Every structure is written in C-alpha cells, then in structure tokens.
Amino acid sequence: MSGSLPFYQKHHRHYDRAYRSKELQSAVSQYRQSSSYAAQGSASSISSRGLRASGYSAVEEESKSSPIVKRAKPTYLAVDKENQIIGYVVPVFRGSQEFASGLSDTEEARVKESAGHLARRSLFASKMEAERVEQTSRRYAMRESAERISLSKKIYENEEHHRRMNEDSLQHAPEFVIKPRSHTVWEKQCVRLHCTVTGWPEPRVVWYKNNVTIDPLAHAGKYKIESSYNVHSLEVNRCDFDDTAQYRVSAMNSKGELSAFASIVVKRFKGEIDESLPAPRQPGFCSEYGVTFETHIVETFDVSFGREGETMSLGCTVIINPTIQRYQPEVQWYRDGVLLEPSKWAHMHWSGNRATLTLTHLNKEDEGLYTLRVSTKSGYETHSAYVFVRDADAELQGAPTAPLDVLCQDANKDYVIVTWKQPAVDGGSPILGYFVDRCEVGTTHWIQCNDTPVKFARFPVTGLVEGRSYVFRVRAVNKSGMSHPSRASEPIAAMDPADRARMKGHTTAPWTGQIIVTEEEPVEGVVPGKPQDLVVNEATKNYVVLSWKPPGQRGHEGIMYYVEKCVAGTESWQRVNTDIPVKSPRFALFDLSEGKSYRFRVRCSNSAGVGEPSEPTEATVVGDKLDIPSSPGRVVPTRNTDTSVVVSWEASKDAKELVGYYIEATVAGKDAWEPCNNKPVKGTRFVCHGLTTGDSYTFRVRALNAAGLSGFSQESEAIEVKAAIASPAPPYGICLLESVRDSMVLGWKQPTFIGGAEVSGYFVDYREVVAGVPGRWHEANIKAISDRAYRVTDLKENKLYQFQVRAANMAGVGHPSKPSETFRCEEWTIAIPGPPHDLQLSEVRKDSLVLQWRPPVYQGRDPVNGFYIDIKETEAPEEAWRGVNEKATNKTYMKIKELKDGVSYVFRVRAQNKAGVGKASQATEPILAQTRPGTQEIVVEVDDEGMISMNFECSEMTKDSKFVWSKDYEEIKDFARLNMETKGGRSKVTFKTPDQEDLGIYSCMVTHTDGVSASYTLTEEGLKELLHISHDHKFPIIPLKSDLAVELLEKGRVRFWLQAEKISANAKVDYVFNDNILSQGEKYKMNFDKNTGVIEMFMESLEAKDEGTYTFQMKDGKATNQSSLVLIGDVFDNLRKDSEFQRKEWTRKQGPHFVEYLSYEVTPNCVVVLKCKVGNIKKETVVIWHKDDREVKVDDKLSFTEGVLTLEISQISKKDAGIYQVTVKDDRGKDTSVLKLVDQGFKDLMNQVFSVIANSSTPLKIQSTEEGVRLYTFVNYYNDELHVTWHHKDSAITFTDRIKSGVVGEQLWLQINEPTEKDKGKYAIEFFDGKGGLRRSVDLSGQGFDDAYAEFQRLKAAAIAERNRARVAGGLPDVVTIQEGKALNLTCNISGDPVPEVTWLKNERELVSDDHYILKFASGKFASFTITTVNTSDSGKYSILVKNKYGTESGDFTVSVFIPDSEEQGKATRKEKK
Q: How does pLDDT run across 374-408, given as a tens digit for each residue?
C-alpha cells in the first residue's frame, strides 16, 4: 500500500492519466519491485511505536519532472496488524524527533531513478512492435468505454467521499493548471474561455470583464458560466465591439486567491459571415461509440412557485439519439450555478428518459434558478427555470417570516460565529432582532444562545463542548411575536483549528470517526508566555470579538486563557472569564456599555501558573462599525412575458459587505406590497414572475447586509404586464394573381405568428432568375402595404422572377418568406378569370364553417359573375376534389355545411365569367371540423325595456383583442342603426329601430384569438317575432284597487298605503322618496301583505326634509306599476304640523334637537352664512361650533324664539374648507349637526359663490385707450378661484401679446391692442359656476366699433404727440454762480420727433452764436451753451426754447457773475490813484 499513489492524486482530473496504458502499468510494477525495500525500511523505523511514515511517491510526476524526489512530510497514522490505516494519532506533547526513512534522500533518489530508467527502457524495447499491430474491434471498444465510464464514476464518488471525510489533509491554495488563452473572433461569433483550477477546499471561481463581475442572470443569453470537475468556462454569445476587453478569472478559497487573465478582440468582417466558421458547443463525434449523440430536453419544467414546508418536483424528459442500451448520460442539477448533491433536502432520480429533482421540504434557501444539465460524450444540453418559495403562514398574525442561509464560520474548540440573512417580510412592524438556537448533533433539544435579541445578522456562540458537533438555527422577532425557525445549518464540530493545522499535509486515510490520543512522558511544567498579536476582530453594540496567537513559550501541556478589560484612560483591569477559562484563541465579550471605549488584554495559564498579560489593544468604542446600506437608485421595469416583468435598478452606493437585494411589487394605485423574491439577489436585475396579465404594477427595491435592510428605493413607474412584442413570422403561400408584360400581381397568406401586435404592412422583394441562377434581391415597395396582394412593376417581359415577402409590425420587420416559385413575366391573354385569393375560414364547428375570399385580380375577357367552392379531405388525393355548390354564387362568402365531426378539410375557390371557369385558388390550410370546448354563439335577447340586442361572449380575450361586428361579412363601420357596447369579454349590439333594413347575416369575430367567431341570421319571420316580444316587454302593468294615500296614526306616526288588485308572492316593491329609494330602518317601517295586496310604509314623524313626492314602485316579473303621492306646500305643512303636535305630546320631555340641520347660503355680498335651526331648547341650552374638531368662537347668541344659529364667513377661500359642526346640549341631552365643506362639498359652495359673483356683474362696457379698446365689467366681490372665459364670436379667445385679460380690484377687463377689422364682432365674458354659467356680452361692431376705433385713434394720436413733442430732458441748473474771467459751459438733453428747433434767450432776447457765446446743437439730442470769458455783463436770466410740430418747451437758468475781493480792492485803488 505504501508504494501506491495517493488516492486524490491518482484520479485527479487534470493529472497525467497515461498510467491507464499497459506500458506504464508494467513500468509501475517494475518500479514497485525495485523500490519496495525503501518503503519497508521507512515503515520499520516507526512501527515499534505504533506509527508508520507515509511512503509518498509520485510516479506520474516522475515521468514529467526532475528525477530528484522531495522528502515526504512526516505524518501519523494508526494501523492495524495488517497494516491497514484505521485512524489518526495525535500526540499530546509534540517532540523535536524527526522520523526518517531507512535510506538517505540521495540514495533513495538514485535507486528510484535507476529503477525507473531500466523499467522504461525495457518497456519501450519490448512492447513497441506489439502496440503497432494491435487492433481492437468496435464492439470491444464500446464495451471497454462503458466499463471505463462506470469505473470513472465510482472512482469520482469514492474520491468525493474521502475528500469530505478528510478535507483538511488536502487543503491548499488555488492553482491554475491550465490558464485561459486570448482570442480574436469575428463579430456575431461566439467564444469560450477555458481554465483548469485545482485547490482544496474547492475554489470559488468568479469571472470579471474589465474588473467588473460578470453576472449571467443580469445579461440573459449573453454570458454562460459553467464549472465541472475543476474545469471552468465562460461563454460569450454573439460577440460585438463592446465585448472587446480584458477578462479575468479569479479562484479563491480559505487558503488564498489567484487570478489569470485573457483578452478577447472582436473584429468586424466586411462581408457575409462565413457559415463554415465553427459554432460553439456543436455536438461532436463520440469515438468510443462511433456515433454522434443528439440530446433533446422536452416536457420541461416551467417557472414554479411553492410554499415553505411543501414538497416540489422538477422534471424533464430527455431524448438521446441514437439509443444505446444501458447507456446513461451524466445528469446534473444546479441551483444558481452551484452543483447540487443528493441530501435530505434534494433527491435526484433518473428513470431511463426522465430526470427528476425532488425538493422534499421547501425553504427559502431553495429559491433560485434551477438548471438541468444532461451531458454526453458529444456535448451537453441544459434547461433552466426559476423556483420561487413563498413564506409559510406565521403562527401569530403580524409576526415576521423566518431568516435564511444560516452558516457557521470560524469554528474553534468552544466558539463559533453564526451568520444569516434577514427575511424579506417583517410582518408589518420592524424586526426587533434575532435569537440564535443550537442543538447538539444526535439530540433534538434546542437551546437558545442569546437572552436578548441581536439586530446584527452575525453572532458569536460560546460555551460549546470540544469534540462535539452542533447545528444552529435563527428566529426573528418583532412586537407581534416570533417567526418560524430558519432551516438548520450544516453540522459543525467544535475543535481547535490547531488540530487541523497539525494534520495539514498528511496522507488522507479513511475516516473511522475516532481520534487516537497517545501520551508522551511529561517534563517539568513551564509558565506560558504572553499571547501574541491580540486584535479586535469585530465590534458591534452587542459584543466584541477578540483573537490572538498562542505564545511561543507555552510548556508541554495544553494552555487556557483569561481575558481582561478596562475602560480606556484607566488602568483598572477586570477579568472577564473568571469562572470558565477560554480554550480557543478567540473570545466574544458581551454586556459592554454601548458608546464606551475599552481596552483588552489576555493572559495564558496552565498547571504551572498564569503568565504575563499580552500587550493591550488600542481603545475600542463599542458600537456597530458596519453601516446599513443606502437605498438603491432608480428602478426601471421592462416588459418580459404576459406574467413577468424584468426589474433593474441602480446599485446602492458605497455599500459594504452587501448581501443582496429584495424586490417588492404592488398593483398600481394600491399599497399592498408583496415580495418578489424571498432570497436576496446579488445582481441589479431580476425577473419578477407570477404577475397578473393586464394589471399594472409598481416596484421598489431595498438592499441588505449584516447590519440590516436599507430604506426602500423610489417606486418605479407603473408598467402593464403584457408580453413584449416581437416582429412577425414570415408570410407564406406566395402565388401569382395576374401577369402583364411589365408587372405581376402577387398574393400571399398572413404569417402564422404576428408577434403580439397587428401586422402594419408588408414589403415585397424580387429577383431575376437567369439560367436557373438567382440574382440579387431588390425592393419592390419602399412604403409598407396593408393588403395581402401587390403589383410589382418595372419588370422585363419574358424574364423569370422569384419573390419574397416580409411582414412588419410596431416591433419591426420580420424575416423574409421562402422564395416563391419562379414566375415568368408575360401577358395573360386567356379569356377565363384568374384565381381568387385571400381565403379565410371562420365560425368553425363540428358540422359547418364559413369560407370567405376576395375576387380574382385578373377578370379575363368579361367580368366575373360567380364562384364555385371545392372541398376535399386533407389526406385525400388531388382527384378527390368535389364541388360544394352546383350553381355559382355571386357572393364572396359561403357557409359550408354537412361536414364530418373530427375530419380535416381543405378548400379552394374558382371564379367564372362568360368564357368559363378559371383557375382554382390556392388551397386553404387544413382545418379540423370540430366544435371547440367553450365555443359560444350569438345570443339574441329582448330586455325589460323591449330593446332587441345581439350578444357575444369570449373567454379567450387578450389585452389587445377586439370584437369586430359585420353584416353580410362586411365590417360594420356606420352605427346609425345600431349601438355597440363592449365590457370585458362580452359585446352587445342593440337595434335602435329594427325594421326591414336590418335583415341579414350578422357575424362577430374576436381578434388576437384562435379564430373565435359566430354569426346569426336575422330573417323577416324572426324580426316579427322579436318585435312582438319587445312589445310585451315594454308595456306590462300591475292593476291597483286603490292608489297611494296617507293617514296619521297615534303618536304622530304617518302611514302611506295602497292595495294591488292582483300581485304574486314574488313581487318586489321599492319605496321611493324624491327619486331616492328608501330602506327599512328606524325611520321607515315597510310592510307588504302578499295575501291582501296591501303595501304600506310607516314613519314615526315628519321633518322639513320629508317634504316631497312619495312613490311605491311595484315589479312582478316583467309587469310593473307605481303610484305617487305629492306632499308639498300647505298639504305637507299641515300634515307635518298635525304629526308634530301629536308626537310632541309624548316626546315633550326629550332634550334639544335640530329642526333644520346645518346648511349654508351665500348673501349678495358673497358672505357665506352657515345656519341651522334647533328646537326644544331652554335657557341652559348651550351651543358650540367646531371646525375640523377645533372650537370656533362666535359672538352670536342663541335665539330661543326662532332657534336659528348662524356663522358668517366673509371673503371665503381654500383655507375655509373643512368639516363644520354645531352642537346644542343641556342636561337633557345633546344633538349635533355636521356640514362637510371639503372636496365636492366645498366645490359646490364655491360654485354658488361664483354664481352670486356672476349675477352681480355689470353689463360689459367698451372703453377706448391709447393702446386699443378695453372691454370691462365690475363685480361686487372678486375671488381668486373664480374661473372666467372671454369669447369672441362664440369661440374662446386665445390670449397673445396683442389681446390680454386681467383683473384690477373688482374690475375684469379684456384689452385689444391695435384693433383691426378681424376684431369686430360679439364679445362675451362667461362666469363658471359649476352649472350653466352666466354670460355678459357686448357687440363690438358697426357704429360701436367705429366710435371706439375713432376714440382709440384720437387717444393714440394724443399719446403720440405727447410722447414725441419737443422736450428739455434735463441737464440745466437753476442758478449758476461763476467768477469773472472764467469760461461757462452748460449742456442739456433735447428730445422730440421730429428733431426740435433750439433757440437760446437772454433776458427774453434771442442769442446768436459768436466768439463770446458759442451755441451748439449736436446729433439732435445735445444742446450746449458756452461763454468763453465771463464778465459781469453776462449776469442775467437765460432760457432755452425747443420747438417742433407737436409742441414747445423751455428751460430757464440764472447766471450770476462775481468779482473776487482782491480784484475789487485793486480796482478801487486804481480808481483812487486816478
């Protein structure tokens, strides 16, 4: 046994399996004989202590690598007397002794190299010739292959068993045996990237495109990812330019991660795609059986829905051709791309041609995309569908649903971390937290692990017993109660990870369920050292998890740990686990104060004592470090099928440790949200199934991680559930209807599949055929045609042509039809007509149907005068055609009778003219004569009103289906004589005034169905009978002995009664008051004595609102009658007073009450007065007003004489809307009256206000302005909510910059600027009051228009004159004081059109420009006045005068010249000297 290869390496899928050949088997045998002593020597050195070393050798690696063999790592296996491995040996004390083989490494390697070399040389020398001549028959090869497949399967199952039982000994990081290679492909081709990955535990492989994860579910049909036997592949379908990228495959397990890269370059081929290029996954030839297997999966499973706790089976029928006895394909089931293994939850079964997967007990973990993969040696086929699992009903109303996906992580001797996912449904109130339960394997006793619920979806469980296995479950709780428990986790053993590490790298042996412990001689105890690398792994508000490494100095016995804590900033250390030391190098601390900061340290201990503490951790604040993810972004639904919608959304931003998303849906307009998935999806796209066709839905999404669920995204737009439309299938049955020298008329049949939308048109292509070789296709029509017949023009005479037709709908243009037969373009000269076309079948029953057709395009020498119909059974020969009608019919339809039930028929039509009978049309498609279940016929009814109607129902309606009614098989488009009404799946046509014009065949056809149709023939006799029944229905009556009368009974009770002469026990009576039907209650008591025919109604009392008309309406079958009694005015008042007088005699001790309830009225000043009237009040009676449950203070006092209460509301607006209530009460009781002035009630009130405003408006008046003509009216009060409309010649005015309207105070005006002749006419302003409205009008035409226009012209001219007259715009001061000798310069602005004349004046005298006075007028705008050197003579009053034809204006200023003091003294001195 020591000389053989390790089992897991021997059968590794990608290891060199050349050992299967006879040559290598011989080499292995010789090698074992030559090297057996080495293994025996190695074993003998250990056998004295009950141990043996591994004789690890790798023959296959020897054949590929260097002859120098690495020394095997020591391992410890327990063996029995026969050297069979029975378990593992774990020493208590690990010594430093090495176990060596009997030979040194160099000697052992030399022996092995020599033996291998001799064996190979001898082998190839002796067997080469025999190998060349050996031949194996096909039968022997097939039998050997089948045995090899069976053996391979058993080996793989045994291998998987050993891997599961001894997985730790195989653990190593991922490694790429074969890396993916780069590809360059043509556009629209497919490409597949392959790689082979080894590693244990089995690596998780993820594919990336430009470092973005590839999700096949988010790109349906684009990507396909497969994994099988460590072979992983990514298939990219129909590549385009966007697929040019770098692709990365990443393999990751608990031992590490590794990536490999490959690129895909997509090129565009300038021409047609070469069909010879290989397509992906084409079935290949199987050399073992000499055949190519073709696999077909039929009778597949569809999208399925189940409920927790139920059992579900998924199955498909698999057909494999050719059939080989006892051959079984490889059948695998996947959920979300993960291979399913048989378990108590999933049972797989293969019964020869049926693959079945049974989910024995559904849980939400079972939800996902299920894929059946059937593999043969020639390829494989798959089928996938989604399975949804709904929540089980909660035990308590409002309790949450169960959590899911409970997993165990980071297991130690006494500690494990349990994780789970939150449920999608919280029961209507937030989840308060979760409880974790544990159960020891082998027992049924569940123990709750936490006393208080935890909100974080991760919890450390401590206190486990080393060596025992546990399972865990989780329950959610909210204020309503506890959920069902989740599905239990997989079993996990509580054991030290160090034990697994010591077994790492050892030879795998069959697991016997026992660990053999041996003892070594103990040595003197040593106090352990400090733990190393103490860190805080996880910190939440509920717990903190610490981890560390054992000390380097630990003695020779097991150690335990004590954990200490202190508040940050202090040195007050407290031991946390005083009673129970920790065995694992991990510990979870509970009962810490949220928000506080702590430090932690750990001590080691053994029998020798307690060691020094580790280095303390950094200060750690107790609280959740992981934030709840943000809400997802925009949600976009798109149509998919008639029961599903594709929902996509923007991912949550900056979400950490995102688990996935939940999607919810509700019918638009409702707030009943239901989950679309109960298992989180990781992508941003999901197909929501199980929706109702035709309903509109809105969707929302939320994300989740371990911290909780995010808020909901914004709701999507509503989308109607209906199948996404597609382009139609190709038309077929192209035939030639007419041919002339340069054109042909073609006909064809409608596509069998129209893509979910009406065919909008057809496109015809043609090509010339020369010497049997078709040319290129050309378009015959650019614009789509609606008829199924078309004339192709511009053809060449005596040339051969082929045609093809494409159908189009709103989704696009479909594929072309198959090319037609080859037709010659030549002139038809025959005298007989061409073939009819466009044959349609309807109203198919077991013994009859209706055939319709269109006349031939080519009529022959004379017009067509009739048609013959031929029939034959579908399978009958051509000679079996027989005529249906002996005499030609001139109609284009015929009902064919006397068919055989269950027989299939075909039909054709021939036309005739005077020259004879023409060529037959194309035959119809085969039609089976049968009456389909649920077939309906047109039903003629006469209702109670005597109206005659035809009714047709259809149970196969789709969203796009319509009822099409025809008369004599021509669609009814003019409904002058009929009324059509359609509700749901029922259509009704009613005759308005039936007479002889309505006779004929009426048919109804339902579109978008499988030929649902029916007809009814209205004959003259049938019409007479219907009219007679209609008359009887219109005029039946019930005779009366006495009409309705009234009388008073005691206590003021009122009795209304009448007596019928003859009435049955099934008669029905309606008691009506003012067109309102009364019902039995406290106020009204009804009695109907069917024996005497007396009908009576009692009222306890009459109120003011009881004034009106009372009617007893009787109906006995179809017979009716009624009798009325009018109680209004004095008659009602007297009756009411008499009744009130008698009632008050025995009710006078009752408390206050309302005689007239709260109502409102609007005064002419638009003040709203709320009023009511009360009775039976006293001084102590109080009145309280409320508005929207708030008391309203009023100054009015209760009037005890009239009992009328009022509340005035002036300048009413929207803020006054509300519910008003008035209460009267005293010690005898109280009464309340409510008036709802909200919604429609407030609208009615405002309409009454608007009516008062409208009635207060003054007649429209005309006023001319400088801009035009203004029409206006005044109202007493204007409200902003008032709607008015201005009309001109009875049409609403469209306002522009020239015509405007507005409101100033209480004036409403319409301004018409620059009126023209078109503006003449009648103008009106319409006030809207919710009813008929009110108009004020004025006639702006004739003399009225002329006067207004003349006044407008006058005002306009005056305005122009005022605007253009000469003006001094400014710039001149009033007074200018200036020193003598200086220069003065003044400028002012001048305006006017035309440019004014400017004159300067001094002291009323005109100035002339000279060297002293410089006068300028520049640009017609600026006038300047300059005095070059000012002297005292220049003082005075100056003026500027501007003048044009529109007026004159002047500006004045005063100039004052002064002499400085020094100059004045100088002048005086000079005068004195003189």
A: 988 778 889 999 999 999 988 888 999 999 999 99
